[in-house]
Each structure stands twice: as structure tokens, then as C-alpha cells.
Design goal:
By secondary structure, the protein is α+β, with helices and mostly antiparallel strands. The protein has 18 helices and 26 strands.
């Protein structure tokens, strides 16, 4: 068989060598310049004509960006022949240990495994924790940047020489893997963790790549080599995933989504139907997770867009693997909790509705790095390939312009999209205000401004105590935003970023919110205004806490947002509201030493709050640095305290605290967004805190909004 392959490869090799002025070896003297790839990309690639996992039709590699991408990949493969890809003989530790003290990532360098410099904090880090986590990155680099690049280069040319690095690495890992112990991130050996990593989640991700590499180069391996890879690496890896210590999580953990995906991809790579069936139909398999892991709006149950996309990536690979073995789930439907059918494409489009005007997504709950539309290109390409939905066309066009460093999977899943300039349906489509009641988020969009209010379920281990948190964004940037989180290896990820104090919301009695779910009471959108009212309950104070957001247009480019917090109390206590303002300058005067910030010690170390002198003030205004007439004004009630200062999240934190309240209380803020021509007279605002009502004029209309229990009533 190798001789037959070699004859085919020889023809391809002559074809490829003509483009490189020399054969593919460690002595290549001249390589293809990027300009020549642009001009004649077809002279480089000659994809193998075989059905392949994740790429069923290689003849569709026709887009210029795809051809350039894979041509550059081949160049990288040739350069890799000159590089060191020696494999560490031990497993690596948790990659989230590989961070500076401020949470920024340490820059990984393949030739540095001893001391690591952090420019952001001017510190040098060393020790077992950092060395062992560097090893995890080294394994990842060897598998992705050497082996997978080599395997794909082989597939894209049919040239056996291109596969040499991939084959060598696969066979080396097959020798090393069986003797490695299972180790956890505390460096304890046992039945929990991994062999190359210390989390079974990370182990599963590496196994997915191993299986893909093996599938690509399988035609040139002999029977003995195949047995070594399958038994000593792939199946041995699955034994690690299924070890007792790695099966203690909830069946809907995203970890098990990757466990299942690894089983599915390995099943496809080894033509193992029984293993595929296990990955799909077992008690915690893919179909169980699909049927039980998404809410009625199509969101993954952890309440984080980062983990929603993370989970969908594993599912996408699993769906492709199933299709490769003849199980087509691209039109899979299931009955949700209220008896309606949900299509598998729904979760792939759900998160897109939350995109901000800047193209970014809100960092709800745990989200370390944040996402923009370019970051989700991979799944948009996948969705566009499999489902005909206008939302994918519209956002994929934007994602391709934003995504300057496409991923390998975005390239193999790439297909044509509708032309926005010629499609009347696409050109008329625009994002709309939307209530995602089950997910617990409402979005108001008006005049290019985006307002989000969060009232959803807590989100399990990845949840934050942030009920009624809001975000406000414009095309110029964020005004109020959610900080997400930082590396879980840092104390601040738990003590600060999951805290109520880190969010623009409300707290009672100077205490963190309880872990709870909220609810929506009102959602109204008409020609005069948009209004959303949400709430949650706190049994510690027999309290009902509400937030009302009212948005009115001032002209074609400006608007005003009235932002109410209203609390009905059964037990007397203080009430505080918090804001975290972005793109804003710090206040440098007007401070007093009248009182210390009313925050616990665990929070105080993450802020530099100082008391403000607010005597004789009705509104206290904060101006944004966005080059426009944009500001937020807080109504100061008699007896209130106001504290300001920068926080761990690098934003300006505002804490306004009431006196002890006996029954009900209302905070008022208005956010003005416009330019120098936008006209609104803030002096016309009449706020009666006792009656919980505000009266103001916009144009020729005078509006009144008044709280009556849980109702925010409006009249003109």
C-alpha cells in the first residue's frame, strides 16, 4: 500500500517542487513569498480526493483566503523541519497557573521553561507551578503547531513528506503516554486529572486533536503503527477520561461535552460505531446534554456566552464526527421543557442577538477574555455551512472583516454567503430589542445605543451575584460594562469578579446578593419609549428588588435612559447601588474624610473608594471621554453617602448608600447619550423620592413615571 501511495505522492511532489525551486527537505533554500501565493494560490495545493473528517468535500477549498491559509500552513510545516519539537517526558499542569499576578497571561516561549517575565507587573516568576504549566503549553504547541500542521499539509498536497512530523509525533506520544501517571493540579497522582494535563477537560481537547491528526495521516501508517496509536494513545486517553475521579461532575458539565466529543472524534478516526453510540446515547451523552443543557432561548445553562460558545465548539465537532459515521444530526430536534420542538441550530444563533454595537459581546458571568464577532467566526462558518438562516449570513460577513487571524476550523468550514449588497432581505435586517426571558437578559436597542439588563439564573459554578446588573454601550465604546473574570488561579476571580460589588447593580444591608434567579415584569416598546422592568426577591430582608429602564429618543442621534432601582422592604436596612463606569476620568477633588467605605475587608483591597462631599447636590454628574455630550447623573437623596474610586476591574466604581430604610426606597439615575446638538434640560426633572415618581419633558411631551409596588406606571 505504501508503494502505491508513494507513486501518487511522487507525482504530487514534482508538482509542489516546481513551486519551491527545490524539493521538500530540511535544505530548502527558497520558499514561496506571500505575494506569489496571492497571485497563484492554485499552484500550491492539491487536496487529496477522499472524504475526510470535518472536511467532507476538499474540492470546496476554493476561497482565496482558504488557499492562502493552507499555503502558509505548508510553509510553516517546512520551517518546522528546522525546529525543535522534542516532547516533554512528563505531563503539564493547569494552564491557568501561567499568569501574572494581575491576571494577564505570561507570554509563552518554546525555548524558555525556567523564568518568566511579566511586563505588565514588572515581575519575574519561577518555580514548579510555572514550569509545569509551561509544559502543558509545550504539549499543546507540539500537537497543534507541529503535528496538526504537518497532517493538514499532507492532506492538502497528498505528499507523504509533509506528514513526517505528524507521524513522528503521534508515534512518540504512543510510546510515552501509557507510562505517564494521572495527575491533578495539586500534583497528586491518582484517578483524577490527566496524563498530559491535570484536568480531564484539557486532556479531552488534546485527544480530539490527536484523533484528527491520526485520521489525516492514517493512510500512510502500517498496521502496527495504527495499533500503537489507537491502543496506546487514543483508547488509553479515553480510559483516563473515564477514570472514577474524572466522573464526579454534574452530567451537564461542559467538561463532559468535551469528553463526549473526544469519544465521537476518536470513534470517527477509528471507525468505531459502538464508541460513537456510547458518545451519543449514554446516560450523559451528547443527546442527553442537548436535551437538558439548553434553556428555552437556546442558551447553555451556565449563563456565560464564553462557555456557551466553548460548549458549542465541542458539540460541532461531535456532530461532524457522527455524520462521518453515517449518523446525521444536523436537523436534530428535541422537545424542550414546555413541550415545543427546538432545532439544533437554535443554540448556534442564540448568542448572536446579544452583540453590542461595537461588535463585542457582554462578558456575562465567567468570561476571562471577552468575545467579539471575529472571535465567534469559527462557529458562524460552521452554522452557515449547515443551516440557511439570515442571521448567520449577516454576522458572518462582519466576522470575516473583524477576524484577521482565522482559525484552522474556520477555514475548513468556510463556504459562500449571500451578498449583502444584492440581497434585499439581508440589507433590511437589523438587530432588534429582545427579551430572552428564560436566559434572563433583556436588550434595548435604540439610536445605535445598546442597553442590557441581567436578571437570569445564577449560572452554577460559573455564576456571579449580579442580579439586575446593567450594561450600556454605544458605537463609540462602553459606558457601563460587566467585568467578566480573570484566571481562576487568582483569588480575585472568586473574591471580586463574582461579587455583587463588581457589578452595576444593587445590594441590601451591605451584603452580597444571594444566589438566585430573577424575573421580568414589563417589556414595552412603542414610538415614545422603550421600558423594561425586572426584579428579584431577597428573603433575608423580606424584600422585592426592582430595576426599571426607560429609554427615550431625543433626536436622530441622542437618547436619555432613566434608570430606576426600587426596593420594597419588610425588614429595615441600608440599600446601596453600584455603578462601574468605563471611558471616564477619575474625580480629583471634592473628597471628604467623613466616613469609610461600607465594604467588607475582602472587597476593600480591590477598591480605592473615597467619600464624596455631596451636600447641596441634587444630581452628581459623571462625564464620559467619548468626545460627545454623554454623561451619567445620579440623584442624591437626603442622607445618602457617595463613594467613588477605581476598582480591580480598571473602571470608575460608584457606590451610593442610603440611610436605614423602613419600607420602600427609589434610586434615580439618568444616562444622557448624544452630541453637542442634543437638547435635554436636566433642570426640568422633578423627582419626588417619597412618592417614587419622576416628571420630565422631552420635546413637547411631559412624561411621568411612578412606582406603585412592582409596577412602573407611565402617563403623558
Amino acid at each position: 500500500m505504501r508503494n502505491e501511495v508513494f507513486r501518487i505522492v511522487s507525482i504530487s511532489l514534482i508538482f509542489v517542487c516546481s513551486s519551491f525551486s527545490g524539493c521538500l527537505s530540511s535544505e530548502i533554500e527558497q520558499q514561496v513569498e506571500p505575494e506569489s501565493i496571492e497571485k497563484e494560490p492554485e499552484s500550491i495545493l492539491n487536496p487529496m480526493n477522499r472524504e475526510t473528517l470535518f472536511l467532507p468535500d476538499s474540492s470546496k477549498i476554493t476561497e482565496p483566503q482558504q488557499i492562502n491559509y493552507f499555503s502558509s500552513m505548508m510553509e510553516k510545516n517546512h520551517e518546522n523541519f528546522e525546529k525543535n519539537y522534542s516532547i516533554p517526558k512528563r505531563g503539564g499542569n493547569w494552564t491557568l497557573y501561567f499568569v501574572c499576578s494581575d491576571g494577564s497571561r505570561i507570554t509563552y516561549e518554546s525555548n524558555n521553561s525556567g523564568e518568566f517575565y511579566c511586563q505588565s507587573t514588572n515581575e519575574t516568576l519561577k518555580g514548579e507551578r510555572f514550569t509545569s504549566s509551561w509544559i502543558a503549553y509545550r504539549h499543546r504547541e507540539i500537537i497543534k503547531d507541529f503535528a496538526l500542521v504537518s497532517a493538514m499539509s499532507y492532506f492538502m498536497t497528498g505528499d507523504e513528506n509533509e506528514s513526517k512530523i505528524a507521524v513522528d509525533i503521534l508515534l512518540q506520544y504512543s510510546q510515552i503516554y501509557p507510562s505517564l501517571p494521572i495527575t491533578d493540579k495539586r500534583n497528586h497522582s491518582g484517578d483524577e486529572g490527566g496524563k498530559l494535563t491535570t484536568q480531564s477537560l484539557d486532556e479531552a481537547i488534546l485527544l480530539i486533536d490527536f484523533a484528527w491528526i491520526y485520521h489525516l495521516v492514517k493512510p500512510i501508517l502500517n498496521s502496527s503503527e495504527k495499533l500503537d496509536v489507537e491502543n496506546n494513545l487514543l483508547m488509553a486517553g479515553l480510559e483516563v477520561l473515564d477514570s472514577p475521579g474524572n466522573l464526579k461532575k454534574n452530567a451537564l458539565s461542559n467538561w463532559y461535552t468535551y469528553h463526549n466529543s473526544a469519544k465521537g472524534v476518536i470513534a470517527a478516526a477509528t471507525d468505531n460505531i459502538s464508541l460513537l453510540n456510547e458518545s451519543l446515547f449514554s446516560s450523559g451523552g451528547l443527546l442527553f446534554q442537548i436535551q437538558n443543557g439548553f434553556d428555552l432561548d437556546g442558551f447553555w445553562h451556565e449563563g456565560s456566552l464564553a462557555y456557551h460558545n466553548y460548549t458549542l465548539t465541542a458539540m460541532a465537532l461531535h456532530l461532524d464526527s457522527s455524520h462521518y459515521l453515517g449518523v446525521d444530526l444536523y436537523d436534530y430536534e428535541w422537545e424542550n421543557s414546555v413541550g415545543n420542538l427546538m432545532h439544533i441550530s437554535t443554540p448556534f444563533s442564540a448568542h448572536i442577538h446579544l452583540m453590542k454595537p461595537t461588535g463585542e459581546f457582554p462578558k456575562l458571568n465567567d468570561d476571562m477574555n471577552g468575545l467579539d464577532i471575529g472571535d465567534v467566526r469559527e462557529l458562524l462558518e460552521y452554522s452557515n455551512l449547515h443551516w440557511n438562516d439570515i442571521i448567520f449570513d449577516f454576522h458572518l460577513d462582519l466576522a470575516r472583516t473583524k477576524n484577521i487571524a482565522p482559525s484552522l476550523r474556520s477555514m475548513i468550514w468556510m463556504s459562500s454567503i449571500s451578498n449583502l449588497s444584492t440581497s434585499s432581505e439581508l440589507s433590511e435586517w437589523t438587530p432588534e430589542s429582545k427579551d430572552l426571558n428564560e436566559f434572563g437578559v433583556s436588550i434595548i436597542r435604540k439610536n445605535g445605543v445598546y442597553i442590557l439588563v441581567d436578571y437570569g439564573p445564577h449560572g452554577g459554578w460559573h455564576g456571579h451575584r449580579d442580579k439586575l446588573n446593567i450594561e450600556v454601550s454605544t458605537t463609540l465604546g462602553d459606558l457601563i460594562t460587566d467585568p467578566g473574570t480573570v484566571s481562576y488561579s487568582l483569588d480575585s476571580s472568586r473574591d471580586w469578579y463574582r461579587s455583587t460589588y463588581a457589578h452595576s447593580t444593587v445590594l441590601l444591608g451591605d451584603l452580597e446578593q444571594v444566589e438566585t434567579s430573577g424575573y421580568i415584569l414589563i417589556s414595552e416598546h412603542n414610538s415614545d419609549f422603550s421600558m423594561v422592568v425586572v426584579g428579584y426577591n431577597d428573603s433575608r430582608f423580606n424584600a422585592c428588588v426592582y430595576r426599571g429602564i426607560v429609554v427615550l429618543s431625543l433626536d436622530d442621534s441622542g437618547l436619555i435612559i432613566f434608570d430606576f432601582i426600587h426596593v420594597e422592604l419588610g425588614t429595615s436596612t441600608n440599600i446601596s447601588r453600584i455603578f462601574h463606569f468605563s471611558n471616564i476620568s477619575p474625580e480629583i477633588s471634592g473628597f471628604s474624610n467623613s466616613s469609610a467605605p461600607p465594604v467588607p475587608d475582602v472587597i476593600d483591597k480591590y477598591t480605592d473608594l473615597k467619600s464624596r462631599n455631596i451636600s447641596n447636590e441634587n444630581f452628581h454628574q459623571f462625564d464620559y471621554n467619548l468626545g460627545s455630550n454623554t454623561y451619567s447623573s445620579l440623584w442624591i437623596n437626603d442622607g445618602d453617602e457617595l463613594f467613588t474610586g477605581f476598582s480591580e476591574s480598571s473602571d470608575l466604581m460608584i457606590l451610593q448608600r442610603s440611610e436605614v430604610v423602613n419600607s420602600s426606597y427609589t434610586f434615580l439615575t439618568f444616562h444622557h447619550i448624544g452630541n453637542d446638538d442634543t437638547k435635554f434640560d436636566s433642570q426640568s426633572i422633578l423627582f419626588n423620592q417619597t412618592a417614587h415618581k419622576v416628571i420630565f419633558s422631552v420635546g413637547e411631551k411631559t412624561h411621568q413615571f411612578m412606582w406603585n409596588g412592582s409596577k412602573l406606571e407611565h402617563s403623558i
